[in-house]
Amino acid sequence: MIKKKEKYNVAVMGATGAVGNQMLWILEERAFPIDEIRLLASERSSGKKLEFGGREIPVQVLSRDSFEGIDIVLASAGGARSKEFLPHAVESGAVCIDNSSAFRMDPEVPLVVPEVNPAAIELNKGIIANPNCSTIQMVLPLKAIDDISRIKRVVVTTFQSVSGAGQQNIIEMEAQVMRLSKKESHYGVGEHTVPPGMVNKFAHQIAYNLIPHIDVFTDGLYTNEEMKMIRETHKIMGRGDIRVTSTCVRVPVYYAHSESINVETESKISRAEAIEAMRDFPGITIVDDPASGKYPMPIEAEGKDDVFVGRVREDASVECGLNLWAVADNLRKGAALNAVQIAERLIGK
Questions:
Q1: Which residues participate in catalysis according to the annotation?
Q2: Nearest-angstrom CA–CA distance, 30 and 47
């Protein structure tokens, strides 16, 4: 654990990236007790300055010597850099909260969503893993339901925004949309596609399209992203017996991931019971009034902290099943906020 202080020295690794920026904003929003903030990034960001606490802080080039005197590292610089640098941070006495996939399935590293398995934080040996964004937003409603009736099976389909793949992918989507918006309106086949040269970051055109795979395919024809959701859910929930299957889809949305989740439980749970359980669960906001057109949508979840759940209904195809729709900002609760919440638990805040 970490030595208790009034204020802490915090390093943000990957500070100039989308998640790193969110980490800085959230640390400031939540008044995290910081003495020194150290911003670390690659040589490309050398000389750059970022604003924090009303001051401009110079970005330092990440190295093995970057962590002297640091108490907490918030890392979002990719798996390879986490594997290379975080062991040195631990040697320097820091506790590291890593947003990459580098350590998530390491049995020695806790994988934490604070509302779901906070006790796992105490088991850290210097590194705590932040789960995949799509897993984080799913396990909150799953935990609320599992607390009242043991979950047997989960079927999830995700609809993941382009921001989950990085800023350059947003730029590519915008360029494709701009190109297509300049065309005259036609309804013929092929009139809504862009030239091959405009497709670089994704496997296919993302503008006005859906891509039914995220990350590479595995031997079983699941993608790595889908396997992450399965394995991480087991580890976070402490329930390797839950049968989980997933399909992950990239959609032309800027921010916030959406998920269609089907849950089968041991005993029947009514719609009203499920809503009550989730409404009382920390980090969940219920938006469920279909008759009035009220249900979670990405444009309303963007910039918000909670997981928004709606379209809750009993599954007519099985005796003990529920359907629900969950939406969350993938850069906040799906990444930066969850990491900061872990840090808050570390210091007892």
A1: 133, 257
A2: 27
